[in-house]
Amino acid sequence: MNLKHRSYQKELLDSDAIPFADIEQNMRELDVINALLGGHRITVKGFNLLRNGQQQLHVCEIGCGGGDNLQAIYKWCKKLNIQVAFTGIDIKEECIAYAKKNKTLPLCTEWICSDYRHVTFDAKPDIIFSSLFCHHFTNEELVQQLQWMQHQSAIGFFINDLQRHPLAYYSIKWLTQLFSKSYLVKNDAPLSVARGFIKKEWKKVFVQAHVPSYQIQWQWAFRYLITYRHE
């Protein structure tokens, strides 16, 4: 795999007509991977950086998948008695169905099955975020995505996504071949790294989107946490 440039090969999960049982297995394994390799920790960190001490917030995730990230934020908020309302948006009906079935979130949680670009809010969420979502898009599409998150959020947005790196690629390829029972995970996990970004590529996209005053932090294991706060 040549990792000098981003891969645009489509992941299997991006295709249609995947059996629901296969998507469920994929969602379960992704939750475990994010828990073990620090993905949920990074999501909670991004949320807390933008929260800035507020005790009552509305949080929206685009590309929410099975709802694992929202669940991680909710567990953390419960410990600190933070009141939080959630909106999860995903284009796949199967992902929304899985999230509704398997995640314990406040009753006011809203699940929206839609392309995020078609969603508008009566009241803007305080924080919008995505995790392992951006690498599914072209750089041109990402420009629009950054602008959408900027315009639709009241406080700001954050992104948790993969660094394209040979060690990350071959490590996750080896680990999933050994331990995964999901053909989706075995194919898509290393491909996700190949579709990921390096820091200078992120900077270029933000310049093209005319979104200023953002911060990029490298996180273990081979991730970037990007935060933007309205001035």
Automatic annotation (TrEMBL):
One MF term in the entry's GO annotations: methyltransferase activity
Annotated CDD domains: AdoMet_MTases (cd02440)
Keyword check for Methyltransferase: yes
Record keywords: Methyltransferase, Transferase
UniProt keyword Ubl conjugation present: no
A Pfam short name: Methyltransf_25
GO biological process terms, semicolon-separated: methylation
Domain Methyltransferase: 59-148
Name by which UniProt lists this protein: Methyltransferase domain-containing protein
